[in-house]
Each structure stands twice: as C-alpha cells, then as structure tokens.
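B., you asked whether I could sanity-check this one before it goes into the benchmark set. Here's the sequence:
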Amino acid sequence: MTLLGGTAATWPLAVRGQRGRDPNINIGVLTDMSGLFATLAGEGSVVAANMAVEDFGGDALGSKIRVFFADHKHKVDVASAIATQWFNEAHVGAVVDMPNSTVALAMQKLADAHGRIAITISGGTS
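And here's what the prediction gave me:
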C-alpha cells in the first residue's frame, strides 16, 4: 500500500524530471525480483505500481503513465546500468522502490546527476 500512494504522489514529480523529452510519464520500479527482499518488494511492488496507474485512470496531465520494472540483483553496477538506460533511452523521470540500501544510495546520486527523481520505498540504512 505504501508503494501505491508513493507512486501516485510521484507522477507530478516524474513529469518534471523528464524535461519534456517524452510525452508519457515514465516511472521505473527498480526492485528485487529474486533475492532476499523479493517477498517484501519484488513483483508486489510492480503490481502495486500498475494498480496505482489503473486507479488513476492511466494518464495524468494529458500524458499516458507507463511503468517500467527491473531486478537490480543487489548489485550497484547492475542497478546503475538499468537506471542510466531508463534515464537516457526510456526517458524515465522517477525511479522508485530500491529495497537494498547500497542500491538506494547509489540511485539517489545517479538520479541527482541526471536531474531525475529517486524515491526509496522499502530500503533503509543507518
């Protein structure tokens, strides 16, 4: 449920993060699909994001909302490659979830460097 509300709140920010490169609102769910946090996040996070899009009607501000997802495999280099591709080619304006703290911290820096948004939903670190 947290992801559902967080994703809906992200849409206006994602539009700003895209800088007019794509007529769609693109949100990336970067999660753990097969590892330690798969039951905490994983497929459930992707389903929740898609349900939020459906509940919102599939568009916002006259733009179609699209959800991308990928498994970061608990590796910063894998997560960075995915997010960089999303930012540069898929014009993703915001990346959400990131239940691994090292991935979440790296994505905060990467998103900032690309002028995009990263919202950690289920990750944490001291």
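One thing to flag: The CA atoms of residues 54 and 87 lie 23 Å apart. Otherwise nothing jumped out at me.
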